[in-house]
Structure formats: C-alpha cells, structure tokens
Amino acid sequence: MNEDIEQVNKLLDSLFVNLNDTTFQFLENPDSDWMSDMENKIKKSFKELNNNLIYKELPKRKDTKYTRIENYEDYEFTHCIAYEMAIRNEEVIKLTNIIEKLNLLNYNILYNFNSSQSYEEKEKYFDKLINSLKELTINIENPFKTILESKNKINNQILENLDEKNILILINTVMEILDNCENDYLLDILNTYNAPNIELLITKYNENDLKNLFKKALILDKYNLIILLLDSVRIKLEKEYYVVNEQKSITPEYIEEYISKDTNYEPNIAVNEHINISLTNPNYIDNYDCTKGYTFYQGVYEDDNSFYINKVTPNFSQPLRMFNTMEISINPSLPLNDILSFVKKIKEDYDKKESFKSFFELIEKDLKFSADKKTTIDKSISYSKKKWADMFYIYDYFQFYFSEDYKINKGDKQREDDETTIAKELSLQLSYYHILKDQTPLDFSNSTDIGNYNSAYDCYETDFKVKIKENMEVSSNKEKIKFYVTDNHIKEDYYPKMKDLIEGNNPEYKKFIGGKNHVKNSIIKEKNNVSVKL
Questions:
Q1: Which of 72, 392, 459, 486 has its CA 20 to 30 A from that of 330?
Q2: Contact, 59 vs 422, CB < 8 A?
Q3: What is the rounded CA–CA span in Å between residue 79 and residue 125?
Q4: What angle do CA 238, 243, 249 make, to 5 degrees?
C-alpha cells in the first residue's frame, strides 16, 4: 500500500512540476500558447495517474487466487475448480453481495448493532440470550407453547435492540439492496422459494410491491422479511448454482488459525444426532477429527458391539453444495486395491445405468427452476493444474478490461480488436511469468510515449526477444518468438472455453460436479484414465 501512495505522490509531483514550468513559460513569453500547453500537460499527468491506478487493480498471475489453484489436491481438484468458476458467475456475484449484506444486517440486529464489539463482549451478549432461552420450561403436553415462548423471547430482544437509530440503519440497508435490484427480482426469488410465507405478508399488508411492503410492515415483520430474503437467496444460490452462504461478512478474520475449516455444507441428520448425543449422554464414546480433505465422526455406546456412527465426510479446500453425495460402506481394513476397485465399479454403474439417479433426476417433477437435462460437457476438457490457473487468470484479465469501471482504453477500436489487443497483452504477461520467471506484471501504460499503447507493447516484446534468444527460431528468414501461449490461442480457445463454463443462468461448471458419463475421468491432464490400471 505504501508503494501505491509513493507512486501517486510522484505523479502528483510531476503534475505540479508541469504546471510550474508552464507558468514560467508564460512569464518569459506571454505571447506563447501557454494555455494549450498547460491543458496538454494536465491531461498527460492525469492520464498517468489514472493508468497507474488501473494497473494496481489489474489481475496478476502471481496473486493467491491463481497460485492456490495449482495447489489443490487431486481428490478435490474438480470440486474446487467448479467453486472457482461459480464465484466468477455474474449472477452468483450479485446474489452473494445481497446475502452478505443481509448476513451482516441480521447479525447486527441480534447483537444490538455492536459488530465492533470485542469477541468477549459478543460472547457475553450471546450467552445472555441463550441463558434466557434455557430458563424456559419445556411443556411436554404442549411443546408448541415452548416454541412460541422461545420466539417471543427472541422477538423481545430484537425489539429492545431496534431503537430509533438502529431502525433507520435497518431501513436504509434494506432499501439500498432493493434499489440496486431490478423490479420484482427479489420478489420472484421469494415467490419461488418461500411462497407461503411471503404470501402471508403480502395478504396482511395488501401490498405486492416489495419496497412498499417493507415500508408498511411493522418492525418484527420487517425483520421477518429480512430473514425470508436471506433464506430465499441462500436456497437459490445452492439449488441453481451450488454456491453456499459462506457468511464472510460476519466471520472473524484469521479464524482458521484457531478453528479448523469445515467446508462440508451437506445436511446430515446422523451427524447432528451424533453431536447431540455426545453432548448429553455420558455413556456415549465419541471420536472426531477435522483434517485436510475429510472430517470423520465416530460414536459408540458403552458395552455396545457396533458403531452408532462411523462416518467420513469431504472437507475440501473450498465449499460447494454437492447434491449428489453418496454413502458407500467401506471396510478400511481391506487392501487399497479392493476398496478402489469397489468404488470404481459403483462409479461406472452410476454413469451407465438409468436405475442410478442423480439428486435432480430423482426430484425432476418437483423442480421449481429450469434445469438442463443434459449432464455431460460436450467436449473433453483436461489441462495441467498450472494451465487451469492460467485460464482463470486469462478470464479475469478479459473481464477486468470489459468491466464498466475499467473499459479498455487503447484506442478507438471495435470489440474484436480489443480482444486481440488483450490477448497479445496476456501472451506477453504469461511469457514473462513462466518463461522468464519474472513475477512483476507488465505495465502497458508505463511508456516514455504516454498514450501510445503500441510503444509500450513493442518495448516489452523487444525486451522479451533479447532475453530468450536461445528459445528463438528462424522461420522464412524472420525472427519468431516462442511465446508461452499465443495470443490467437488465448482469444480463440481459452477465453471462449472459460466463458462457456462460467457464464449464464445455467453455467456448464455445474456438470463437473452434477453430471454423468464424463468421457475422461479427470480434468487434470496427467491423471486421465488412471483408473484403467485398477
């Protein structure tokens, strides 16, 4: 950050020097065209400043979001690649922004808008709320009465937290969310995933417009509407994009240094019952560990002759809903080849037999959203982990220059020419990174001839030629550079392929983790068809 500030200060100093020189020019020669000269120097200085700020935001191949892709383990690679694609989907980004704002708002409502409190203060407040609920006596004959009393306790606490100042924060936050969405966008989501509950509020206030409904609603109904929105957006993300509510906006920073990260979001009644028994039954023996790759739960009653639970669940590096998870009973005492051959048979039968249904095939009639019945990706896709990281970098680089904030500004060209320009730029960026092992990103705005993009490109290309003479070949008496990847390959192959996998309302990445009949058994190039050896 200090380097950024230092660079900006240098550019500002340059601006002031230019202004100072122009002033002296006027004093020495009042008849000169000093006004035009000053205008040009100001424009030049601000262009330098703007280019520098854009350069700082430009994706860099050395960034963690690309290098981590190279480090995903084989057993989790396809799952994590699907996650990387999902978080780049435009609709997912939009919905995730909404849900994180709602996460934070809900958290603040429950914690009396004290998100800046220390951990100890938050813990005391939460304990107070829990203890007040524990004081309730469970009515065996009428358990619903106990539930109602619990709800009343929470509602009273919410009303206590929502004073005039906090109500204003609540209203402004929700209205900002609604204002940033198209008409009926969130109402459609509510009607799809929480129709009975939203219908009650619509009927109660006789209002179909979501903004007006929120304005009319009483305080507790405002809160209920927030919870309905939170739940509906969560379900839409999970069902339609396999994305989970990670609650990043309310998760303490560096929490993973103290608590192991559990990325498994699959509902599991058996595990929930096991945890409840282990906390309440002194005659129950439990064993648990959350480690890289998986989490295991073991439990047995004293003097019993079998496990009550002996379950292993995935714990991959990234969270993603896996609707197709299947429980397979395995005896870990058997030889590894026996176990792998058994799993291989099940996988092969799953791909071929119609009797084996995926989750969405099984509930097809009950689907509340359109689903693609075709579950395979048209063409086999298989690359090294390093190449996959390159492809994500390529996609992000293109998206950066085509975004509203950073429209490509390299001359008056058509979009096709823009794509060619970006592809050439990427070809050099990746060649410097991989061939020359130079992790410093190329700054194409950094040229002695500011405003002449070709000047900067030619400079880097010439420098690249000099540094890799030993890798050059002569073709038709002309020098030809061996780039890491050609600009044509980037433009015609990698970028379009990534767009197909990431973009749209029914993106192709979903077939990686929800499909059948995959032609090859791995998207990691070196690992294809390894199962034939079993």
A1: 72
A2: no
A3: 38
A4: 115
Angstrom distance (rounded) from CA 228 to CA 222: 10
Distance CA 100, CA 435 (A): 40
Mean pLDDT of the chain: 79
Task: Count other Cβ atoms within 10 Å, centred on residue 414.
Answer: 8
In which residue are the tokens 């030993």 written? 470
Handedness of CA 519, 524, 526, 531 (dihedral sign): negative
Query: Measured between alpha carbons, how far is residue 101 from residues 9, 109, 172 in Å?
Result: 35, 12, 12
Q: Determine the length of the chain.
A: 534
Cα-Cα-Cα-Cα dihedral sign, residues 441, 44, 454, 461? negative
Rounded-to-integer distance, Cα 421 and Cα 480, Å: 19
Q: Tokens 């064993």, residue?
A: 287
Report DSSP state, residue 243: -
- Pick from 507, 523, 511, 512: nearest CA to 237: 507
Residue 215 is predicted with a pLDDT of: 93
CB 221 within 8 A of CB 201: yes
CA–CA dist 441, 436 (Å, integer): 12
Tokens 């019945």 belong to residue? 373
Q: For residues 506 and 371, is the Cβ–Cβ distance under 8 A?
A: yes
* Beta-bridge partner residues of 312: 296
Q: Per the structure block, which two tokens stand in for 366?
A: 């009950």
Which residues of the chain are under the pLDDT cut of 70?
1-55, 112-153, 254-259, 364-380, 404-416, 445-455, 470-481, 516-521, 526-534
Give the SS3 label for residue 173. helix
- C-alpha span between 26 and 35 (Å, rounded): 9
Q: Enter the pTM of the model.
A: 0.80
Cα 109-115-118 angle, rounded to 5 deg: 135
Q: Tokens 């599991």 — which residue?
A: 268
Q: Could you tell me which residues are beta bridge partners of residue 165? A: none
DSSP 104-171: HHHHHHHTTT-TTS-HHHHHHHHHHHHHHHHTSPP-SS-HHHHHHHHHHHHHHHHHHH--HHHHHHHH
Residue 418 tokens read as: 């823009």
Q: d(Cα 188, Cα 208) in Å, to the nearest integer?
A: 11
CA distances from 384 to 363, 381, 454, 509, 520 (A): 36, 10, 33, 17, 14
Let me know if 256 is exposed, middle or buried by CB neighbors in 10 A (0-12, 13-18, 19+): exposed
The whole-angstrom separation of Cα 428 and Cα 60 is 13
Q: What distance in Å separates the CA atoms of residue 400 and residue 409, rounded to the nearest whole number?
A: 12
Residue 525 near residue 382, CB atoms below 8 Å: yes
